[in-house]
Write a structure and sequence with these properties.
The structure holds 2 protein chains of 2 kinds. Chain A is an all-alpha fold. Chain A has helices at residues 2-23, 25-46, 50-73, 75-83, 85-90, 96-125, 130-157, 164-191, 197-226. Chain A has one domain (6-226). In chain A, helix 1 (2-23) crosses helix 6 (96-125), helix 2 runs antiparallel to helix 3 and helix 6 packs across helix 9 (197-226). Chain A is elongated. The relative contact order of chain A is 0.15. By secondary structure, chain B is an alpha/beta fold. The chains are: A mainly alpha, B alpha/beta. At the A-B interface, helix 1, helix 4 and helix 5 of A face helix 3 and helix 4 of B.
């Protein structure tokens, strides 16, 4: 009787957060528009040298995606913390690790996935070819969930702390560095004709290890936050 | 059976209470009283396992509640200061998702019935941000209707913002829970007479 109930609870967490996100469309658009604007400022500022744009493009898009995902993180648990939903999740007869994973998944679907979908359009501004655009999407598809997972730990740790937003960025940005290096590296490698396989495998490995450790660390931090 | 032995609580530098012991069995109402800041909420949060006590232990059927973990939480319902009602969702959606995450089996009809019973018949489909404070509290209370199979209810100032009609409804709910063998731990500043087969009282802060 218990396992299906557990999945019901998990999917209820995901669906509730997605529904809330849909009703707060302005918040979602903020993240997405921020991503688009930051990545579009560079071609405007640097000029129209196609070779230069091609070489900075992957890095710029990745940095913009990273900043956009930080921007969205502050809202991951703060609403639930303020209205008491987090207490109820902590008191649910299920592992909080598993329910926290549900929240992270919903958060990625609402804020990470749109970045992956819009990224190729931004890539065109940087004169990236079709292969590079595909690799860009693949690297973001593997990388942004990792960002959400790592970010969730930071969001849970800074919950209820005054000025938590700035602290969150300081705490999380250094941890994003490996994802950034291999994410942007994948696109550069493919543009240079080296193949992106190695980079993408490493991104996949990051994702898997984050999937194992981050929900657990998030749950532990959330329990401290509701105490 | 909930047994509390030699419980002590320290928040910050301040000792709120120490060496509190009591037992609650079926059909029992425990009223926790005391002035503001005497540690009523902390005591309730310790009882439901959100807070670790500085001393002593809480056990459910002979085993420590932190050892039991999920097994204990499946026997307990908690209603805190915050109603856990999401502004952007409707009353029906709020109840559906909070029941599912709490592991309560509730059909759509159960949820509608619960909302009707608590007097929210016409308000099921509108976002909770347009509801009044008291109506939101009713939404939170509607969750308790779905928790009737759980023996232990821990309610922190449940009657805040409720009007006379809602007060009567909730009093009925709590009394029938006690009659059917439930246990109830309650803090309140309002004078609400709940008739119960057994009533115990704890005064904190004296």
């Amino acid at each position: 009787m218990k396992p299906p109930r557990l999945l019901d609870a998990w999917s209820a967490v995901v669906r509730r957060d997605l529904l809330s996100a849909l009703r707060h469309r302005a918040d979602l658009l903020t993240t997405l528009i921020f991503f688009v604007i930051v990545a579009s400022l560079f071609p405007l500022g640097v000029g129209s040298d196609a070779a230069l744009l091609r070489s900075i493009g992957p890095g710029v898009i990745w940095v913009a995606a990273l900043l956009a995902s930080i921007l969205a993180l502050a809202r991951l648990f703060s609403g639930d913390y303020a209205d008491g939903t987090l207490e109820q999740l902590a008191l649910a007869p299920y592992s909080l690790t598993f329910l926290a994973l549900g929240k992270i998944v919903a958060h990625w679907l609402a804020t990470g996935l749109p970045l992956v979908i819009v990224a190729p359009l931004l890539g065109v501004q940087f004169d990236l070819n079709a292969d590079a655009l595909l690799v860009l999407m693949a690297s973001l598809l593997l990388g942004t969930p990792t960002l959400s997972l790592i970010g969730a730990v930071g969001a849970a740790l800074t919950l209820g702390v005054r000025g938590g937003g700035a602290l969150l960025s300081l705490l999380i940005l250094p941890l994003y560095v490996p994802v950034l290096i291999f994410g942007a590296g994948a696109v550069e490698a493919s543009a240079a004709g080296l193949g992106a396989g190695a980079h993408l495998s490493l991104l996949g490995a990051f994702l898997l290890s984050a999937l194992v450790f981050a929900p657990w660390a998030t749950a532990v931090s959330l329990r401290i936050a509701v105490e | 059976m909930l047994v509390i032995s030699q419980l002590g609580c320290v928040r910050g530098e301040r000792r709120l209470f120490s060496e509190i012991s009591f037992e609650i069995g079926p059909h029992t109402l425990l009223e926790v009283r005391g002035p503001n800041g005497s540690g009523k909420t902390s005591l309730l949060r310790i009882l439901c396992g959100l807070l670790h006590p500085a001393a002593g232990r809480v056990s459910w059927n002979g085993r420590d509640i932190h050892e039991l973990g999920e097994e204990y939480r499946a026997h307990m319902a908690y209603l805190g200061h915050a109603s856990a009602v999401k502004d952007e969702l409707t009353a029906h959606e709020n109840l559906r998702y909070s029941a599912a995450t709490a592991g309560l089996a509730a059909s759509t009809t159960d949820i509608s019935t619960a909302l009707d019973t608590i007097g929210l018949s016409g308000f099921q489909g509108i976002p909770c941000k347009t509801l009044s404070q008291g109506q939101r509290r009713r939404v939170a209370f509607a969750r308790l209707y779905l928790c009737s199979a759980r023996p232990l209810w821990i309610l922190d100032e449940p009657f805040t913002a409720l009007d006379a009609a809602a007060l009567a409804l909730t009093r009925n709910l709590l009394e029938s829970h006690l009659r059917s063998g439930g246990m109830l731990v309650l803090t309140t500043h309002q004078e609400v007479e709940i008739t119960s087969p057994h009533t115990q009282r704890i005064d904190l802060g004296i």
